[in-house]
Amino acid sequence: MIWCRFEREGKVSHGRIVDDEVIEVDGSPINNPADTGVTYALGEVRLLAPIVPPMLYAAGPNHNGHVEGMAARRGAAPNYPKIPEPNFRSVHSLIGTEENIVIPADSAGAVQPEGQLAVVIGKHARQVASRDEALDCVFGYTIGNDVSERVWQGADRTMFRGKSCDTFKPLGPWIVTDLPYDSFRIIVRHNGEVWEDFTSADQIWDVPTWIIEMSKYTTMHPGDVLMMGTQGADGDMVPGDTIEVEISGIGTLRNYIVAE
Amino acid sequence: MIWCRFEREGKVSHGRIVDDEVIEVDGSPINNPADTGVTYALGEVRLLAPIVPPMLYAAGPNHNGHVEGMAARRGAAPNYPKIPEPNFRSVHSLIGTEENIVIPADSAGAVQPEGQLAVVIGKHARQVASRDEALDCVFGYTIGNDVSERVWQGADRTMFRGKSCDTFKPLGPWIVTDLPYDSFRIIVRHNGEVWEDFTSADQIWDVPTWIIEMSKYTTMHPGDVLMMGTQGADGDMVPGDTIEVEISGIGTLRNYIVAE
């Protein structure tokens, strides 16, 4: 199934997408909502980030290529992560597909994309004991872009400005259920040029491992979103640019760069 | 006004506290809810964390005494923060007063309190231009305990395990409105012994400054909670201990340490 969140005439709803139609439902997809009977053509609605998670987690370094690319840039040896530990992003920085990524006025400009698979949790998960149980906690998958201001990321004590400025977390265009976690192909395109092309099979730790390890310490809640890390280290995006993240079986998340 | 969130017979509600009574309301305090007409004696309800924030921010080092105490422990020079930048905590780690703080089974045991003033935001705040405007965004104040596992905090890449394990964020017992931000006295008591006694006047950056600076990059939302940092560097808490944070004009947040 394909689930979206959309705005139409000022009202925000969730819906199922079937062919080119959105079937409005009466709640969040994670709560098994009923259809309202109202349908729209997909072109008649404005898609939003497909869910507003209670917690937005980022797996951080989860592909060796990203660890190595970022280290090379600093002229340092790669510092591979030893355990899967997430960081947090602000849910207030979420935007949907086709929305603008706004570069803050005082940014030096090193605003870069990180195309990522995003996992939507469907159940309360605590002390998850097996890979099967972990995968049973997955509601579906969507696409994230963990937009990063590299000067602030490097200089600041926390990743607040570096990763969680308003509009820095595009998510969407929708959530797709019933897909295998280990064979997504993830492509990042900058103004149509391929900047990254990698697969979820190359993650340092895979989806069930992250859920098992995180759930040793925290209860994951329905609606939580875990972004699974990116490959490589990309260049700067500047106003006027278009950035796309395409994931096989899901679709394309497309955003536009503008200056504040 | 004093606002609480409580559970009674399995139902979770918000309420106003007047004398020893809880007057149930029909929504969240930040949405100006109406009374339902139902009242309970305060002793008849179980108090919960007084709000579930969309984002739970921690001001991080915001008292020189904490910067210096933590540095002395490492045998390093104090590294004073240069700008007010928050970190994030998991909203899933929130508990209320009188609840148990659970030390994870694989913790080496260095679980320590951080008594903190907690600011509850009442309005959307973005590009806040003045201190008056910032203070107008404050709904009220409550008490937080930024419980920290120091081994994980020091060793891990992120503060996930160090600061956001389940039960590591006691908040409460309630929210009090219409208090001055700059004269709170904050006392931390470990099994009745005073471990810290400090004032919000000694913060490195005060409440309006944090709101102004954060709102340059993020939209603060109604219900967001900002914990304002602690003084000093305290000792370990062990199973059987009681930890209290008292703040003048608000009350006392009391929790009990247990092993997983």
TrEMBL record, chains A, B:
GO molecular function, one term: catalytic activity
All copies of domain Rv2993c-like N-terminal, residue ranges: 1-50
Short name of one Pfam family: FAA_hydrolase
Keyword 4Fe-4S: no
Residue ranges of every copy of the Fumarylacetoacetase-like C-terminal domain listed in the record: 57-257
Keywords: Metal-binding
Gene Ontology BP term (one): small molecule metabolic process
Keyword Metal-binding set for record: yes
PANTHER family referenced in this protein's UniProt entry, alphabetically: FUMARYLACETOACETATE HYDROLASE DOMAIN-CONTAINING PROTEIN 2A, FUMARYLACETOACETATE HYDROLASE DOMAIN-CONTAINING PROTEIN 2A-RELATED
Family: Belongs to the FAH family.
Protein name (database record): Uncharacterized protein MJ1656
Species this protein is from: Geodia barretti
